[in-house]
Amino acid sequence: MKPAHLVSGAIAATSTEVIHARGASVRFGERLLWSAVDLHIGPGTFTAILGPNGAGKSTLLKVLLGLQPLAGGTVDVLGAPAGAARRRIGYVPQRRGFDRTLRIRGVDVVRLGLDGSRWGVPVSPIRSRRTREALAEVVDLVGASRYASRPIGELSGGEQQRLVVAQALVRRPELLLLDEPLDSLDLANQAAVAALVQRICRERGVTVVMVAHDVNPILQFLDQVVYVAEGKAVVGAPNDVITTQTLSALYGARVEVLRASDGRLVVVGTPEAPALHADRHAG
Amino acid sequence: MTLFDYPFMINALRAGTIVAVVSGAMGWFMVLRRQTFAGHTLSLIGFPGAAGAILIGLSPAFGYFGFCLAAGVIIAMASPPVGSALYSEESAVIGSVQAFSLACGFLFVNLYHGDLNGLTNLLFGSFLGITNGQVVSLLAVALPALVALGLIARPLLFASVDPEVAAAAGIPVRLLAVVFLLLLGVAAAEASQITGSLLVFALLVLPPATAQVITGRPLLGIGLSVLLGLAVTWAGLVMAYYTPYPTGAFITTLSFAAYVAARSIRVLNARTRKDPASLREAMA
Ligand SMILES: Nc1ncnc2c1ncn2[C@@H]1O[C@H](COP(=O)(O)OP(=O)(O)O)[C@@H](O)[C@H]1O
Ligand SMILES: [Mg+2]
């Protein structure tokens, strides 16, 4: 279903890789969160990070951002050690939504992605025209023009999610890191935001790494899956990783992957009934 | 003779103007960051500071600035890191500091043989007898503070609205929080000298909160907040000139009236649009 050259193992040359990790591990005090993680993520690909709650998926994104130091191994992102190429990365953290009473317009939140890290007061009128154009374009791209000038706290979860994706995109990043962006959205919005991310990936050639709670809304778009569990990670094409055999080996316990008639995957029997799995949004 | 013929009145207006501008700008970020409790505490801490300074024979301004800035640093150190529940743990620390500082203030005033008029001024504000020197010192502190706020304004907005993404973009979120509390300490110390320690929220909270009810645009909101602060300060000073009541009382009443008016207009607007969602929002 995927072009073979997009699948991990086929990408050999390190220089063309957007993310390259070798033997990476993270430790919190005494606890080894995960170790021996190898990643090869090529440009323009769509990768999902899956796994049970607490496995360390969000931490993996923080490693890629250079916000979480490694206990061992190396991670290069966009050809430099993690953290060095921050400005070329768009990031949408795992979140609970903006405070209902936050009286800042959606478009101003998007704008923070463009010039929010600049010190000093904006003065140049040329720059401010370019800013307006860039904002209008990205807000239109995510389909948020209708409500972008309303205070962000008043907007629905799906509307807020599109605006934070716009915020992450406004600088035209080469790499987009999304932490459970579909979580807390209804089914229709999940499909719409997933399709939006896919479009950005394919049309703009942006490399996407998305932590997902439920793989099904994005399954058809994925080139690669990173499944984190039990302190390890398996990486590969979705059809190779999300299988009874691979996941049973990863968990060290009998796990079963079932495919529903509509093609959706359900994983049953994982040690602590994790998310992907007992699909809350089914139905 | 008009009130502009009195030098003390001119100085009061000058001082009030400086304080209103600083409070309007700092207060906008404070309200955005949900740190009004911290701001209120900073201003209460000015009270024992000023009383203590008088007790040992210094100008109260030293006490205000010294205590408010020190408290700003302490609150910043006690505040939780990015990503944890917003400032909630902060409040327990802050609450205790509030009570303690009020107690100290009264103790110092008592040790000073309880000059009751002085106490009222410290708590509720006075505009009499503001010297040229005081105006200069207010300005000398206000200008660098405003310049500093201008320099950090955008990253501070980013860190306030979206701390995790700001941190990922390389903004020193923790450091900005400390710097902002110092600037807030400056604003609280300045406002205390006009409205008194108890009524600082009249300038530091109400005009910014009103501005945020009116507009969701950051730059416009800050401008509006400053203008509202100026309007209530000037009006309050003039009213205090013609009556025997403290300045702070008028400034507070006017600020509160403006806030209530803004909220009411928003609710009315939502009602006439018969839009349940925006009505719920307006009432929130
Ligand atoms: N800064 C930290 N210090 C200590 N423990 C942490 C830290 N960040 C995350 N953890 C722990 O690491 C584990 C994995 O967290 P996380 O990466 O958020 O998991 P996931 O996103 O897969 O649900 C959790 O048990 C969490 O408590
Ligand atoms: Mg997570």
Distance between the termini of chain B: 48 Å
Q: For the largest sheet of chain A, list the strands in their spatial order.
A: 6-7-8-3-9-10
Strand content of chain A: 15-25%
How many beta strands in the DSSP annotation of chain B?
0
Summary, kept brief:
The complex is a heterodimer of chains A (283) and B (284). Chain A is an alpha/beta fold and 283 residues long. Chain A has 7 helices and 12 strands.
Which features would summarize this protein structure in a list?
heterodimer, A: 283 residues, alpha/beta, four-stranded antiparallel beta sheet, globular, B: mainly alpha, ABC transporter involved in vitamin B12 uptake, BtuC, binds magnesium ion
Give your account of this protein's structure.
The complex is a heterodimer of chains A (283) and B (284). Chain A is α/β, with parallel strands linked by helices and 283 residues long. Chain A has one domain (5-268): P-loop containing nucleotide triphosphate hydrolases (Rossmann fold, 3-Layer(aba) Sandwich). Chain A is built from 7 helices and 12 strands. Chain A has helices at 57-65, 106-115, 125-141, 157-169, 187-204, 238-241, 244-251; strands spanning 19-28, 31-41, 46-50, 72-77, 80-81, 89-92, 175-179, 207-211, 224-229, 232-236, 256-259, 265-268. In chain A, the strands form 3 sheets. A 6-stranded mixed beta sheet of chain A has the order 6-7-8-3-9-10, with helices on both faces. In chain A, strand 11 (256-259) and strand 12 form a beta hairpin. In chain A, helix 2 runs parallel beside helix 4 (157-169). Chain A starts with 18 loop residues before the first strand and ends in a 15-residue tail after the last strand. Chain B has 284 residues and is mostly helical. Chain B has a single domain, classed as ABC transporter involved in vitamin B12 uptake, BtuC, CATH 1.10.3470.10. Chain B contains 13 helices and no strands. Chain B has helices at residues 7-32, 36-55, 60-78, 88-111, 116-124, 132-161, 163-168, 173-195, 201-204, 206-214, 218-242, 247-272, 276-283. Chain B is globular and about 55 Å long. The termini of chain B are far apart. The model of chain B is unreliable at 82-87 (pLDDT under 50). The chains are: A alpha/beta (283), B mainly alpha (284). Chain A binds chain B through residues 65, 67, 86-87, 89, 91-93, 95, 98-105, 108-109, 112-113, 115-122, 149-151, 154, 164, 167-168, and chain B through 32, 34, 86, 150-155, 157-158, 161-162, 164-171, 212-213, 215-218, 221, 277-278, 281, 284. Residues 28, 33, 51, 53-59 of chain A line the site of adenosine-5'-diphosphate.
